[in-house]
Amino acid sequence: MDYVNGTDDGGERLEAEEIDRASWDSMANWTQAERDYWFMGPFDGGLPGMIRRVRRILDVSQRGLAALLKVSQSVVARWETGRTSPRACVVEQLLRMARLRASVRDEQGEEVGPMRADGARTHAGSRYPAHVDLRATGWWVPRRLRSMTSVEAFAARDRSRRIGDPAIRYNASPFWKAVERELYGTPDDHPAVHQLAAESRYLDERREERFPPRAA
Length: 216
What we know:
By secondary structure, the chain is mostly helical. It contains 8 helices and 4 strands. The chain has helices spanning 32-38, 46-58, 62-69, 73-81, 88-97, 151-163, 174-184, 193-210; strands at residues 104-105, 111-112, 135-139, 166-169. The chain has a two-stranded antiparallel sheet. The protein has a two-stranded antiparallel sheet with strand order 3-4. The termini are far apart.
């Protein structure tokens, strides 16, 4: 049977939770093993349980939450029964409405955050592949000048040094990437451009120490 535990402000009967009759968890049809397992709870309600938690925090009915999200009540009901799942952007909106913050943790219980938004990008404006490790190898020079020692090539390098535009490289080969990580460690994230520029300046300093300019 369906039990409704209240009425709306307008006196309307609150909606019953949408229930699939074929899967209704009436204990009359359960085996003894299923009963024993159930009484071992409570259990994690997963995403459907979190949506119900948000609704409880906001103190709204399914219809009320649907109005806040501009969806139908049946959509909220399907989320809460696990038939469908809301998009990630909707989950973020739900958490903001309830003043909650989601976190991701690894197997050791350490919180894992997203990759930084200000990580270095290519000159075309796209992001570097997330699985590679970025390293500064000097100062950026246009591809057509990289094999040259012309005045134009040196001028391009000096300009990149002046504005802090480093040459960024990465190894796509799993073997060489593993070698680099063995030598230098595994970076936690892609560094920002100013961090890579600082690495390029450090390389310049090391180069000057190894090859000091000759006295005139």
